[in-house]
């Protein structure tokens, strides 16, 4: 109870202020409807199955985009972190792509691939790639020189140095990149779904705005926030397990 209190104190205070503001008419219901109205709308969407359909569509897109981005960014970050010259040659192209907002590419992606799943998944991949790539690159490119030298003194092969020294040292940075990348996946997807989608939380939020239903908009936003917290908690748990296993293996 004492641990949960600091975590819940601010959300409960904000909920209380929200309820008081709606009850005492500090603002109009069109601007911010009462919490019970939003909860009722959320429950209706859940019972009718609409919420599950939108959540399922968004989760599938995030999962596919995140896995593709990780599958591309991890090898690229490792390779370029180990081969500085290759990174120098590719730096300008990578910097150009990194500084172009993925949503700015959505119109051309729609022209190329239509409004089906491909364009939205590519947006997720582009937004997720660089957080994972840059953190992996930083972790691989900055090893402890003393440990590297010790490995060479003991006659370790380049592969053994990579597997037993450089990769374990880079794991915290790689994990950070994966965790940040997952958050970027959600952000980019919701933007893409607001522009071109027939299902998903972004579509639900936009549909609520077009119907002048702020309760639907807030129900979608709250669902998105809760899913983001759960996804980040799952990633944090997986990261702790991975790093704990790695430390235990190193001690052994």
Describe this structure in words.
Its main location: membrane. This is ABC transporter permease. Pfam families: BPD_transp_1 (PF00528). This protein has about 250 residues and is mostly helical. The chain has one domain (about 40-250): MetI-like fold. It contains ten helices and no strands. The chain has helices at about 5-25, 35-50, 50-80, 85-100, 105-115, 115-140, 145-155, 160-195, 200-210, 215-250. The two termini are about 35 Å apart.
Summarize the structure.
The chain is an all-alpha fold and 252 residues long. The protein has helices at residues 4-23, 35-48, 50-82, 84-98, 106-113, 117-141, 145-153, 158-195, 201-210, 214-251.
Topology:
Blueprint: H1 4-23, H2 35-48, H3 50-82, H4 84-98, H5 106-113, H6 117-141, H7 145-153, H8 158-195, H9 201-210, H10 214-251
Helix pairs in contact: 2-10, 3-4, 3-6, 3-8, 3-9, 5-6, 6-8, 7-8, 8-9, 8-10, 9-10
Domain ABC transmembrane type-1: 55-235
Keywords: Cell membrane, Membrane, Transmembrane, Transmembrane helix, Transport
Protein name: ABC transporter permease
Features of the shown structure:
83% helix; membrane; mainly alpha; 252 residues; transmembrane; single chain; MetI-like fold; 10 helices; transmembrane helix; elongated; cell membrane; transport
Beta-sheet strand percentage? under 5%
Number of strands: 0
Taking all residues together, what is the mean pLDDT?
84
CATH architecture tag = Orthogonal Bundle
Question: Count of helices?
Answer: 10
Number of domains: 1
Low-confidence segments, given as residue ranges, are: none
Q: Which topology does CATH recognise?
A: MetI-like fold
Q: Helix share of residues?
A: over 70%
Instruction: Give the ordered list of helices and strands.
Output: HHHHHHHHHH
Helix and strand composition category: mainly alpha
Distance between the termini: 37 Å
What would you give as the CATH superfamily?
MetI-like
């Amino acid at each position: 109870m004492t641990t949960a209190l600091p975590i819940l104190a601010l959300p409960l205070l904000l909920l209380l202020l929200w309820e008081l503001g709606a009850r005492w008419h500090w603002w109009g219901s069109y601007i911010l409807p009462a919490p019970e109205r939003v909860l009722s709308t959320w429950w209706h969407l859940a019972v009718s199955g609409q919420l599950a359909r939108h959540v399922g569509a968004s989760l599938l897109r995030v999962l596919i985009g995140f896995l593709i981005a990780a599958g591309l960014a991890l090898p690229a970050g490792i390779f370029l972190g180990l081969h500085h010259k290759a990174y120098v040659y590719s730096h300008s192209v990578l910097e150009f792509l990194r500084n172009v907002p993925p949503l700015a590419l959505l119109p051309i992606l729609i022209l190329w691939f239509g409004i089906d799943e491909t364009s939205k998944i590519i947006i997720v991949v582009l937004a997720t790639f660089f957080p994972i790539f840059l953190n992996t690159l930083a972790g691989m490119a900055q090893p402890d020189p003393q440990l590297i030298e010790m490995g060479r003194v003991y006659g370790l092969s380049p592969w053994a140095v990579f597997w037993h020294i450089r990769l374990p040292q880079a794991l915290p940075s790689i994990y950070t990149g994966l965790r940040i990348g997952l958050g970027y996946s959600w952000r980019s997807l919701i933007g893409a779904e607001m522009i071109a989608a027939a299902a998903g939380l972004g579509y639900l939020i936009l549909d609520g705005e077009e119907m002048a239903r702020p309760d639907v908009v807030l129900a979608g936003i709250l669902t998105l926030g809760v899913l983001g917290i759960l996804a980040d908690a799952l990633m944090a748990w997986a990261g702790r397990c991975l790093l704990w296993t790695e430390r235990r293996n190193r001690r052994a």
